[in-house]
Amino acid sequence: MTLPALTYNPRSAQSFIDEVVERSGQNLYACYQCRRCASGCTVGEETGITPDRLIRMVILGDRDQAVNNPLVWQCVSCYTCGTRCPNTIQCGRVTETLKKMSREEDVIPQNPTIAYFHDAFVQGCTRWGRVNEMEFMGYYELKNIGKYLMTFQFKKAYREIAGQIALGRDMIRQKRLHLKLHTSRGRKEVKTFYKIAVKRKAHLKKERQAQIHARPKKV
Question: Fewer Cβ neighbours under 10 Å: the N or C end of the chain?
Fold first, then answer.
């Protein structure tokens, strides 16, 4: 698979990489592109983007490509890349950071289904302090099926409903689906953390918009 050439943007490269390094806790300056992470990436062949390529995007300041590519959303955080890296760079933490940045900037993910899954997980944890399987999957499927209905893909919506019903039936038979509602004593603290994160997101969004407006316009 041939990928487009990366371009270097000296104006934004330094600030972007510093932001990613600070938020992810990973020293991306130590990456010397040995590509050992690429050889072990479990989703690299499917996404077409490997961890070394993603880190290179960040180093070169290609913000748009870094926050909007398949690897950011399809990384399974197996941390194989970090165990292979001679400088112990965990690209899984980098993808999580870029995922947060993409949400802060209201970037539409290339795979909305994965975004729905993340949203359902966060909503469940925030409300009860832990994830309840029935509520979690119900919220996820409502958004997922709603996507098909909004685009008039009724056959896909039907297949999704039928498939999930069959899966749920099999899981209940094997006692792998828990119907009981579980809560956590610390759920108030979790809600507080979530509110702080929402406020931070709004603040960062305003800063990002201000930076965009401050850029010199192309003649």
Answer: C
